[in-house]
Protein 1
Amino acid sequence: MYWRQPEIKKTKTVCTYCGVGCSFEMWTRDRHILKVQPVVEAPVNGISTCIKGKFAWDFVNSPKRLTTPLIREQGRFREASWDEALSLVARRLLEIRDEHGPDTIGFIGSSKASNEEAYLTQKIARLIIGTNSVDNSSRYCQNPATKGLFRTVGYGGDAGTIADIEQAELVILVGSNLAENHPVIAAKVKAAKKLRGQKLLVLDPRKNEMAERADLFIRPKTSTDMVWASALARYILDNGLADREFLESQVNQVEEYRKSLEPFTLEFAEEVTRIPKAQLIEAAEMIGQAESVCLLWAMGITQHSHGADTSTALSNLLLVSGNYGKPGTGGYPMRGHNNVQGASDFGCLKNMYPGYEKVSDEKTRAKWAQAWGVEPERLSLEVGSDNFQMVQDADTHKIRAMFIIGEETAFADANTTNVHKGFEELEFMVVQDIFVSRTAEFADVILPACPSVEKEGTFTNTERRIQRFYPAMPPLGDSRPDWQILTELAARMGHDWGYAHPSQIMDEVAGIADIFAGVNYERLEGWKSQCWPVRADGTDTPLLYTDGFHTDDGKAVLFPLEWKEPDEAQDSEYDLMLDNGRMLEHFQGTNQTGRSPAIDDLVPNWFVEVSPELATERGIEDGSWVKVTSRRGSVELRAVVTDRVAGTTLFMPIHQGKPGINHLTGEHHDPVVNTPAYKETAVRIELMPQG
Ligand code: SF4
């Protein structure tokens, strides 16, 4: 069957999966998605996409989509009208607020919803409920990186654009499986290497595809990255490789920082990280001698008990070598979800209004109160609870109600056994999603939302680039765009905001939050885009820090640190460490990718990677059934014997399995940002009878 050209609708959309932010045309006829067509005008990807952006769209028309609100009654869900469901949600949230206080209600915004929808989520929490307890999934991934950037250079976003990464003389990948998690950026790095001789340095406990292509691949002991980063910085300072002029004119605390580096000798780093001294020197020389360095990091750094410190150490290293504020330089935390950057930018954070404006600052509060037409006292100055605290506090009834939008918390949080227990203790739980997710199974009310191809809005990618997406088809059944649901809900709680189009929401944000001052839908029309901060005249900022840093005096800060051991270690009972991460084909809990048979068939089963040396020692063969047990629980799955992992480190994908990897992970977390240390899980492995 083929469709004639005039019957085909071509709609510009932005990918719903990772933070690269690829945009393309979606060709549809009625609800049929005929193909995804990349176009040269796309600012990030041009004519490239990866397998997910190109093919993983079957979920849109899945028969499992939610098409009507559901209310739990006597332990079962029954269909309900929007009027009944929204009235119930409004009434119960206001009752709990009035009876127990605003801070007993927590909101988790979606990293898949639009910027405008993130804004409305926090507006309901702050203005109507009166709490700052609003967060998003960046708590579980890149908040430690953001903290490291706040401490050193000032903005919680990538220092430049993907074009800067392409033009760098040296690209460093740390704890980032770029080829599988951000494939289109990886393709650009591969091309730059091949065509221009760009140098590539990879540091990772797992030998991923980019490691195989690297000029230098280094395998540190897991959770020790802060030590090698500090040792390289010390070597660069001690051996005349630092950018002296830059340090003198643009950086504060140089001497304090230099003093803090005293313990970080090459010998100490070799002992702690198990990286041979010669490799440490080679890496330091590569960095010190390169004209321009981009350093990319991801959850291999952040999901540890001291991920914020390690992220800070990486940014310190870039400062020492003068790699900020020039084309082809800077720190680049690779954002995971397509709009995890936007969810934070637009205020789904416990301590920040949209545009990273502090909730605890009285002047800031007065500004937002005036914009929202209320007395300042109506808005809380107290920092709220984050995702991690909300779930912990549900167990003790400090949190009594949760409103979760598009997040698979019941699968993605660490130690899911405890998470489920907390959810069961809640008085009231609302989930707004496109499927009855594992999280929605705990809800009292489920509100059916729309995926991006059925609505309009903007997403912000990893390089702070704001792009519009347009509806390729109408909402399925009685589902609704999240911004409409939230607007309706607010009206039922006495706040008639009257938004008729998401552009009005963006105009409102632009009128309040400084970094979005010049953002509007006209300037983002079609394939146009803007990287924040955007001045009122519409000038955007692809490369940050060209005129100084985002600090009080415009200077960067070298932030002194101390080495701290990871919170969970191997012992005689749990003698292995479990690493985990994503695969190219799937995304998160497979709620979307798992509904594309062609993709699901490529990786149908969950597995654990075992090193050849460990397999030989334990009698494990490729395909053996094994049981992996942590201090929290056990899972059974097949072993894949591969030299991608080494020694006593195992690796599991995060996507599949029942009960899933977070049945094993624990609640130990980074105390600075409350990010669980997913990648510090001590386990043991046992061979199972063949099933
Ligand atoms: Fe989508 Fe990311 Fe793939 Fe681009 S690289 S098509 S944004 S999943």
Protein 2
Amino acid sequence: MAAEIIYGNKIAEKIREHIKMDVKRLHNQGITPGLAVIIVGDNPASKTYVRMKQRASEKVGILSRVIEMSKETTQEQLVQKVVELNEDPTIHGILVQLPLPKQIDEKVIIETISPDKDVDGFHPSNIGRLLTNQECFVPCTPLGILQLVKETGITIAGKHVVVVGRSNIVGKPVGQLFLNENATVTYCHSATKDLYQHTKQADILIVAVGKPNFIEGDGVKDGAVVIDVGNTYLENGKVFGDVHFNQIKEIASYITPVPKGVGPMTITMLLQNTIKGAEKTIR
Ligand code: GUN
């Protein structure tokens, strides 16, 4: 039977309606949630993402401040800007768009962001809290993926989750998030031998490698839930996911499309994290 398609865009829309209400409630308490997004250089993909984040923020009533810095920006200048935003009471969330130019060490910048405003959830303090299952900012894409899987209504505890990809942004934290939900988690990566032997064990398969059609139908178990985090733009302007959608939709029970799957959830979780940052100031 053909899989049910999980439309992240529709789920994201519903969540954004709730976020609008949260923003109103905060307004009534005299707070306008504020998100600062720093972009360094002129990477076209980064510019598009930042514009999307800005538009989404404004639509729900979050104040959005985009700070554009030249590609020659030094690490010290960027650190200085982040410190300024850490101290700015009108800003509740700070996001530095990655990747950064070579002269800047990402780790240094991420560690400069106040953990209380770290809406990306990349600061080691937040990652450590995620690891120990404590309240924290959770990275946006993993949080969006968890929401999508929860929407299917399946029980996560006891399920075998296989994550393909081990980036700090998606792979590592998403595995941890599902572990915290009592799933059994396997990580696969570029050095994994006989990849399909692992992916075929998955009740929930999450693929985040950035390679179009990397997982094909014979890598998926009948009835699996398949989450495609891929988002690769080819020269013809078409966007491709990491899984072979047409093959896998005949095998899986649920599958996310690309586009309209995980992508819209990532931005929605950024808005949600910004609300969380604003709420921290009234506790
Ligand atoms: N670049 C690609 N994805 C992300 C993300 O989630 N956050 C930031 N800051 N940069 C990114």
